[in-house]
Specification:
Blueprint (H helix, E strand, L loop, with lengths): L4 H20 L17 E3 L2 E3 L6 E5 L6 E6 L3 H15 L10 H17 L1 H12 L3 H22 L6 E3 L7 E3 L6 E6 L4 H14 L3 E6 L1
Parallel strand pairs: 7-8
Antiparallel strand pairs: 1-2, 3-4, 5-6
Helix pairs in contact: 1-5, 3-5, 4-5, 5-6
């Protein structure tokens, strides 16, 4: 999939779009100076959870070594809980499984709207967490997130099957269906935009997702 046109097109689109923004932008907003990190728990089934073990680990700014916060340390029990929730959400008759394709597109567009609204906050966090310059985080990473979400939101109701003419008394057709729960691991260098690159096509197709940061 990573080498397919469906994946590569939004990647190149977001890079080209960000490059245009960079050349056109005369000024950038300043990163937040009083960043307060609120969400440090494990997110499962639309709820925040403490880790089953009660363990936490520190997150540091790699550019300065400064400790930013502590986050919950997930283990096997937490992963199992997330997988069970994702499987339940994928069951026949669930609200996610019965949602129209256009509804999945609407939800992806809504997520893009929310990222756009909180772009400054997220870019500041991404800059500090990755040890990268703010302009890259703001223009490339966040711009890529929004572009990718809107791209796959548009795809949600355009995934179609085919009928294939066959000799003899046969009826041949293809039908694309979601495969189930998808486990995804995101890297350390572009965590937010790679998170979006992974979940957007999956959610677009009706798949449920369990994500593990590197």
């Amino acid at each position: 999939y990573m080498g397919s046109e469906l994946f590569l097109k939004p990647v190149f689109t977001c890079i080209a779009g960000a490059a245009q923004i960079m050349s056109a932008a005369k000024t950038l907003p300043a990163p937040l100076s009083d960043l307060k990190i609120q969400y440090t728990k494990i997110f499962i089934n639309n709820e925040w959870h403490n880790s089953a073990s009660g363990k936490k680990f520190p997150v540091h700014n790699p550019a300065t070594g400064e400790k930013m916060c502590e986050v919950e340390e997930g283990d096997k029990e937490d992963v199992d809980k997330a997988v069970k929730a994702a499987r339940k959400a994928f069951e026949f008759g669930s609200s996610w499984r019965t949602a129209d394709a256009s509804e999945r597109g609407r939800l992806l567009n809504k997520l893009a709207d929310l990222i756009e609204r909180d772009c400054l906050l997220l870019a500041t966090m991404e800059s500090l967490n990755g040890g990268k310059i703010f302009s890259n985080a703001y223009l490339m990473d966040l711009g890529g997130c929004i572009t990718t979400l809107r791209y796959f939101a548009g795809w949600a109701d355009k995934i179609q099957g085919r009928t294939i003419p066959m000799d003899g008394n046969y009826f041949s057709f293809t039908r694309h269906e979601p495969v189930g729960v998808c486990g995804q691991i995101i890297p350390w260098n572009f965590p937010l935009v790679m998170f979006i690159w992974k979940i957007a096509p999956a959610l677009c197709c009706g798949i449920t997702v369990v994500v593990k940061p590197a």
